[in-house]
Write a structure and sequence with these properties.
With about 375 residues, this protein is mainly β. It has two helices and 29 strands. Helices cover about 5% and strands about 45% of the residues. A hairpin with a 4-residue loop joins strand 4 and strand 5.
Length: about 375
């Protein structure tokens, strides 16, 4: 089932002012992104009085299983490995852990530092669990004031804190959980040993501006490869995606094009492809080959000409995206590049989404304003 008149990529939100909003060029000036923190928070927490209130509507073969109202504006979200829990980070710096089955709030994670500084939680990720681990459901969280915290969800305790001298915007664990990486408002990607919490490497560009072996602006997304323990990719404002070995200082290679302003990189373990979502109106959703770095396809624009903050593979056959300009989530068929489902009339832009990675067509969740929308594809026969 496809939506009439809609194909390709794009998700949107009601217009947010900014230099990039009226531009249609393929490249972007880094300082125009709306996800600059804390300045960009004005677009997250501003007055809603100028927007007509409508109830969100699921179209095509997408359906809303439930809507959960949260205590603050949603910035980030992630499922744990067995998809029983959903961690959500908020603009006030708090984190809540919800039951993935019924949306019930289970745990609230705050401490004196997060309560005192009251700055956004920018990313959350569960540590991979392995047999022999003494603790389950450990959550790594980053914050706009440079805090990096490791939380034990069930006890509500922060078990370790790292202070970085920057806005820390994103983090990821390696597949085996032995290391984690953080990135943010500078060009450096820090690699930490999970056991000791010590910094073991800094991934960064060469001093010479004539060499492009690392980022030159802030970094918004990092993703480890599923099958190569030391390899990860990163993307940000400099319109490049870099390929790294976590043991080396400089990137091993790069691809040009994506203007990444949120969690909009993902690696498909089935086909070894990368999907990138860009905060721009032209060529904003692209598929790349991981091994060669070559572009496979640019997903055609949809009518809304959207700006993307988040993009993910949804199982083997679909892509999900969210962003701003029309406040919408879209599901795209990987083969035809046509839209199969949409969630429209959302109260704000979509800054985060995640899927539970269960089955051929996983369930997923999207955050807009203070609401979590639990979504799934309708069964077709």
């Amino acid at each position: 089932m496809y939506l009439s008149g809609v194909s390709g990529a794009g998700v949107a939100r009601v217009h947010s002012p900014g230099p990039l909003s009226n531009r249609s060029s393929r490249t972007s000036t880094p300082h125009s992104s709306m996800m600059s923190i804390p300045a960009g928070m004005s677009n997250v927490v501003g007055d809603q009085g100028d927007m007509e209130h409508r109830e969100p509507v699921a179209e095509g073969n997408l359906k809303i299983s439930q809507i959960v109202e949260c205590p603050s504006e949603i910035m980030c979200c992630t499922y744990n490995e067995d998809s029983t829990l959903l961690a959500v980070g908020f603009v006030d710096g708090s984190i809540r852990v919800y039951s993935a089955e019924n949306g019930a709030p289970l745990h609230t994670l705050t401490d004196d530092e997060t309560l005192a500084q009251h700055l956004p939680c920018t990313s959350v990720v569960f540590r991979p669990f392995h047999q022999g681990d003494r603790s389950q459901n450990l959550i790594l969280a980053t914050y706009a004031n440079g805090l990096v915290k490791l939380w034990h969800a069930s006890s509500h305790k922060c078990v370790h804190t790292i202070h970085e001298n920057r806005q820390t915007l994103t983090a990821a664990f390696s597949k085996n959980g032995s290391v984690f990486i953080t990135a943010g408002s500078d060009e450096k990607i820090y690699v930490y040993d999970t056991s000791t919490k010590k910094l073991v490497n800094t991934c960064q560009p060469s001093p010479s501006r004539n060499v492009m072996d690392g980022h030159r602006y802030r970094v918004f997304s990092v993703k480890f490869h599923h099958n190569h323990a030391n390899e990860f990719i990163s993307g940000g404002w400099d319109d490049t995606v870099h390929f790294w070995d976590s043991r080396s200082e400089h990137s091993t290679r790069k691809l040009f094009g994506p203007h990444v302003c949120g969690d909009s990189l993902d690696i498909d373990a089935h086909h070894n492809h990368i999907v990138t979502g860009s905060w721009r109106k032209d060529a904003n959703l692209q598929i790349w080959d991981y091994e060669s770095g070559e572009e496979i396809r640019t997903v055609p624009q949809d009518f809304s000409n959207s700006l993307l903050y988040c993009a993910q593979w949804l199982g083997k056959d679909h892509i999900i995206v969210g962003g701003c300009d029309a406040n919408m989530v879209r599901v795209i068929d990987r083969g035809t590049l046509k839209t199969t489902g949409r969630l429209v009339d959302l109260p704000r832009g979509v800054y985060c989404l995640d899927n539970n990675r269960q089955g051929n067509v996983p369930k997923f969740v999207a955050g807009s304003s203070r609401n979590l929308y639990f979504l799934e594809m309708k069964q077709t026969y």
